[in-house]
């Protein structure tokens, strides 16, 4: 089996790398970790100008499907601030899949140009991963919908031009049936944003919706069809839009520190690095499979769950190994003299706990794998 890239793929990869090299400077990386905003307007616009973002939108990409994987793999390997971009491209794919022609014309170009970010309003403080139990309500009032409620973990809401928002529109239907997804301008009156700074330096947000009024043109995927719309988004998110090779830059930072300090001379360090390379290679292949399905118009829900479980838990193992090998130097942060991996060993140790939670916990993804792949019953004690 030949996994080598075609000459066209290599040309695309090299062009993406050149844009990353020109735009992802040490100052941009430092700004990402200082502000907690994992997005770079300069990088996004540069990619948008070349048409590379449009090529990456699931289901509408103009290039070979592998380009979806190439783009995010290169961003991830470089440690670029790509989280906001990944969310935006994912939502562009959702709009392309279930949106109206008017929504596609109004929303997608603003994303593929690199100008617009998107905040995702799914989770609520009292429910977390039990998204179907949300309480945020949307009530019909004449030709409009009036929305009231609150969301938690609305990452990028403070920079977003669009908010995608899951609401309950029919409380009398079963909880998965009475949901409706909306997509609206982030400056719609009644929306407010409060910062939530995390242990891993990322900024996320709590968002509040007080008598927010939108029309039917904001309904994404149909009234009471919100669960179906969200499953499209989750299928793209899990194992497709980056996050599956997060240990690659950590591996590079650790190696560049460990080699001159002598840490790499030990057999345990070499063994751990070899295992890390193997795990990241497996994660890469799993991601390529998910990306191919998504870019070919499919929904890699099951395959995405497999990718996410393996890749995120591998990242946690690798971060733990490198922290142990670094010893006290692994506790030093960015800009502190002697910090292992220029502080990235310490940063990844703080960042890594959440990766098995966001985008669907490992437990939820394992249930998905058990039911859809192993054909185990849904009933659980």
Summarize this, please?
This protein is an alpha+beta fold. It has 13 helices and seven strands.
List the helices and strands and how they pair.
Elements: H1 7-23, H2 26-35, H3 41-49, H4 52-56, H5 66-77, H6 83-98, H7 101-112, E1 118-121, E2 137-141, E3 144-152, E4 162-168, E5 179-185, E6 191-197, E7 203-215, H8 226-237, H9 247-261, H10 267-295, H11 301-326, H12 344-351, H13 362-372
Parallel strand pairs: 1-4
Antiparallel strand pairs: 2-3, 3-7, 4-5, 6-7
Please provide a written account of the structure.
By secondary structure, the protein is of the alpha+beta class. The protein folds into three domains: 7-116, Butyryl-Coa Dehydrogenase, subunit A, domain 1, CATH 1.10.540.10; 119-224, Butyryl-CoA Dehydrogenase, subunit A, domain 2, CATH 2.40.110.10; 238-372, Up-down Bundle (Butyryl-CoA Dehydrogenase, subunit A, domain 3), CATH 1.20.140. The chain is 48% helix and 14% strand. The protein contains 13 helices and seven strands. The strands form two sheets. Strands 2-3-7-6 form a four-stranded antiparallel sheet, with no helix packed on it. The model has no long low-confidence stretch (mean pLDDT 91).
């Amino acid at each position: 089996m030949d996994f080598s890239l075609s000459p066209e793929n290599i040309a695309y990869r090299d062009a993406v790398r050149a844009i990353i090299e020109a735009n992802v400077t040490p100052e941009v990386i430092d700004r990402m970790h200082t502000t907690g905003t994992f997005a770079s307007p300069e990088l996004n616009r540069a990619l948008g100008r070349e048409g590379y973002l449009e090529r990456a939108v699931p289901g509408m990409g103009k290039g070979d499907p592998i380009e979806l994987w190439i783009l995010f793999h290169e961003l991830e390997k470089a440690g670029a601030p790509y989280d906001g971009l990944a969310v935006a491209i994912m939502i562009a794919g959702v709009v392309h899949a279930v949106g109206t022609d008017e929504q596609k014309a109004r929303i997608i170009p603003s994303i593929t140009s690199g100008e617009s970010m998107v905040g995702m309003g799914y989770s609520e403080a009292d429910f977390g991963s039990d998204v179907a139990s949300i309480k945020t309500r949307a009530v019909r009032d004449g030709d409009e919908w009036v929305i009231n409620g609150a969301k938690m973990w609305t990452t990028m809401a403070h920079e977003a031009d669009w908010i995608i928002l899951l609401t309950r529109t029919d409380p009398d239907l079963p909880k998965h049936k009475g949901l409706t997804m909306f997509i609206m301008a982030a400056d719609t009156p009644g929306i407010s944003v409060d910062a939530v700074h995390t242990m891993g330096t990322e900024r996320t947000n709590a968002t509040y919706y007080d008598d927010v009024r939108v029309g039917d043109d904001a309904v994404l995927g149909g009234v009471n069809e919100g669960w179906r719309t969200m499953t499209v988004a989750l299928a793209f998110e899990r194992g497709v839009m980056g996050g599956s090779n997060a240990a690659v830059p950590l591996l590079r930072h650790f190696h560049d520190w460990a080699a001159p300090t002598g840490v790499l001379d030990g057999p345990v360090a070499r063994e751990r690095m070899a295992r890390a390379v193997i795990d990241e290679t497996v994660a890469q292949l799993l991601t390529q499979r998910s990306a191919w399905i998504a870019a070919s118009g499919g929904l890699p829900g099951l395959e995405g769950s497999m990718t996410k479980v393996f890749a995120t838990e591998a990242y946690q193992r690798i971060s733990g190994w490198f922290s142990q090998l670094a010893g006290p130097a692994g506790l030093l942060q960015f800009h502190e003299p002697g910090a292992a991996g220029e502080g990235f060993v310490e940063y990844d140790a703080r960042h890594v706990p959440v990766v098995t939670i966001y985008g669907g916990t490992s437990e939820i993804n394992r249930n998905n794998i058990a039911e859809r792949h192993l054909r185990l019953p849904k009933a659980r004690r």
